[in-house]
Write a structure and sequence with these properties.
two-stranded antiparallel sheet; mainly alpha; Phage transcriptional regulator
Length: 75
């Protein structure tokens, strides 16, 4: 995970960060422990305010897809 070429993260069902690789921590301006439990709107404005709508839309898409997958498994 840490050797990934890009920055990436893992979020919980509430879209709060639970893991972020070092490239993401550096890019978004967090320190190693500051990101846990934070949401996209906690990322410093100068870094990605314009990306918030895209992040939120992506999170919703992932959540909806997982809901559908769970329903299909229970059928």
């Amino acid at each position: 995970m840490e050797k990934s070429l890009g920055n990436w993260c893992v979020k919980d069902i509430n879209s709060d960060y639970i893991f972020m690789n070092k490239k993401g921590i550096d890019y978004y301006g967090f320190n190693k422990i500051d990101f846990e439990g934070k949401s996209d709107k906690d990322i410093p404005i100068e870094r990605c305010q314009e990306l918030w709508p895209e992040f939120i839309a992506h999170d919703r898409k992932v959540i909806e897809k997982n809901k559908k997958n769970r329903c299909n498994r229970n059928s």
